[in-house]
Amino acid sequence: MIATALKVEQVAVHFGGLVALSDMNFTVGEGEIVSLIGPNGAGKTTAFNVVTGFLDPTRGAVSYRGTALNGLKPHQIADLGLARTFQRTSVFPNDTVYDNLLVGLHRQGRVSLLEAILGLPRARSSERRLRERASELVEWVGLERRAHDLAGSLSYGEQRLVGVALALAAEPSMLLLDEPVSGMNASETHTFVQLVRNIRDRGVTILLVEHDMPMVMSVSDRIVVLNYGRIIAEGPPDVIRNDPAVIEAYLGQGATRA
């Protein structure tokens, strides 16, 4: 039996009289790839915000590997091993891809400012390790040919890969991907599916929100379907693909051919 990594129990989020999430219950097992699907306004990003500490639930509980996340700040949740990408990827456009990752890695540095300024041996050793790690991350996400190009010159899809690399720089045990293939063409999406599987094969659990149904169906172990803040279906792709209520509510009749 797969151990539970993330557990969401009876989570509700109310904005005044608006119910964004209602009694949401689901789990993500260690090493699983689980997708949240649904139309705009279904509550997917709200769920992500609750899990990652950007939004407090009105009621309910979220835990990761047995540790309660309620009340924790985003950086505290990140310290537990949960890393997140966002729908809007922010890069430093006038810096190279490599330098963007180096900036992200330096934020995790263990070297004091004085040691860095003086160029002490510990600082030099740390800098060497960070540069090696930046090169590894660039290669991992498939951007080695663009490593020394300005991040602002990358396509939107490539910039999304930079965002994933920055999340991976934190060495997370769980990665939350918010619409990761948005803006990618079919070839880029196919490559990204392989990347997601590779990330999972390295021991990282994945929860993703995505509108690209063929991508979701091909990469997910399980799918959780939201409608107006409620879960209406949950199961493996074949079950979701053939669920009449899901087809009607979300995917359209063409989903059966996805």
Could you tell me the radius of gyration in angstroms? 19 Å
SSE arrangement, N to C: EEEHEEHEHHHHEHEHEEHH
Q: What is the CATH architecture annotation of the largest domain? A: 3-Layer(aba) Sandwich
CATH domain class of the largest domain:
Alpha Beta
CATH homologous superfamily assignment of the largest domain: P-loop containing nucleotide triphosphate hydrolases
| Spatial order of strands in the largest sheet | 6-7-8-3-9-10
Task: Supply the number of structural domains.
Answer: 2
Shape: globular
Low-confidence parts: 111-116, 253-258
- Per CATH, what is the topology of the largest domain? Rossmann fold
Measured between the Cα atoms of the first and last residue, the distance is: 30 Å
Write down how many β-strands occur, each being a DSSP E stretch of 2 or more residues.
Answer: 10
Q: Beta-strand percentage?
A: 15-25%
The SS-based structural class is alpha/beta
Average pLDDT rating: 86
Helical fraction equals: 25-40%
The total count of helices amounts to 10
Largest sheet: 6 strands, mixed
What does this structure look like?
Strand 7, helix 7 (186-201) and strand 8 form a beta-alpha-beta unit. The protein is an alpha/beta fold. Helix 3 packs across helix 5 (121-140). The chain folds into 2 domains: 1-81 and 172-257, P-loop containing nucleotide triphosphate hydrolases (Rossmann fold, 3-Layer(aba) Sandwich), CATH 3.40.50; 89-170, Rossmann fold (3-Layer(aba) Sandwich), CATH 3.40.50.300. Mean pLDDT is 86; it is low at 111-116 and 253-258. It is built from 10 helices and 10 strands.
